[in-house]
Amino acid sequence: MRRILLGLGSNHAADVKLPAMVERLADAFGSLLLSSIIRTQPEDTAAPAPDYHNAVVLISTAASLPEIEAITTAIEESLGRRKTAAEKQLGHIPADIDILCADVDAMPLAIREPYYRPLAIEVLHAAGLRASVPTNDEALPRVRLHLGAQSIGLAPVTIAQP
After folding, report:
1. Is the peptide bond before 42 cis (omega within 30 degrees of 0)?
2. SS3 23
3. Alpha helices of 79-154 — where are they, by DSSP H?
4. Cα separation of 105 and 81, whole Å?
5. 134: pLDDT strictly greater than 60
6. Which of 40, 81, 88, 95 is the most buried if burial means most Cβ atoms within 10 Å?
7. Which helix (H) or strand (E) holds 74?
8. Residue 22: its pLDDT value, please?
């Protein structure tokens, strides 16, 4: 089994789309560890766009990277993602799932997006793993969302499907 970090983001109906991503990932992989959810400002958009909700999840899976990419792409598309130039330029992204690290046991982790780094540390510590991720320690606002009756977003939580 390989442990993988995924980065989640949404700024179009994010209060619905981000919990839906979490739920569908838990359906696909059985369980996952979800970080806090933060609010970030959009970058590189031609027009003003809503803030993003971002989170990191840790999954354990025997699936190959192409299989994981196929699953995450299917989830994105099922939630309205089209990956067109117009979608990127307007900055309205309903669902974005990126593989941040294909093997968390290969330290140190190199995570390009700085806003994901503190979330990666948080989720790895919650899993009992030592984390070595350079971070700027910038505190970003946390977001409380709901996954069914469960409140998510303010602290790491394990999500498991029955």
Report:
1. no
2. helix
3. 85-90, 117-126
4. 31
5. no
6. 95
7. helix 65-78
8. 98
Query: Which tokens is 157 given?
Result: 């939580």
Cα-based torsion angle of the residue sequence 47, 96, 101, 61 in order, rounded to the nearest 10 degrees:
180
In CATH terms, the superfamily for domain 2-153 is 7,8-Dihydro-6-hydroxymethylpterin-pyrophosphokinase HPPK (3.30.70.560)
- The one-letter code for the residue type at 103 is D
Checking if the pLDDT of 47 tops 80, the result is: no
* Residue with more model confidence, 116 or 45: 116
Cα 145 from Cα 153, distance rounded (Å): 6
pLDDT digits (tens, 9 = 90+) for 25-40: 999 999 999 999 999 9
Mean pLDDT of 42-61: 89
Q: Which residue has the tokens 């780094």?
A: 117
Q: Tell me how far apart the alpha carbons of residues 151 and 76 are, in angstroms, rounded to a whole number.
A: 22
Query: Is there a contact between 90 and 53 (Cβ–Cβ < 8 Å)?
Result: no
Spell out the residues 6+ positions from residue 31 whose beta carbon is closer than 8 angstroms to its own. Answer: 59, 158, 159, 160, 161
Q: What is the pLDDT of residues 84-131, one digit of tens each?
A: 777 777 778 899 999 999 988 876 678 888 899 889 989 999 999 877
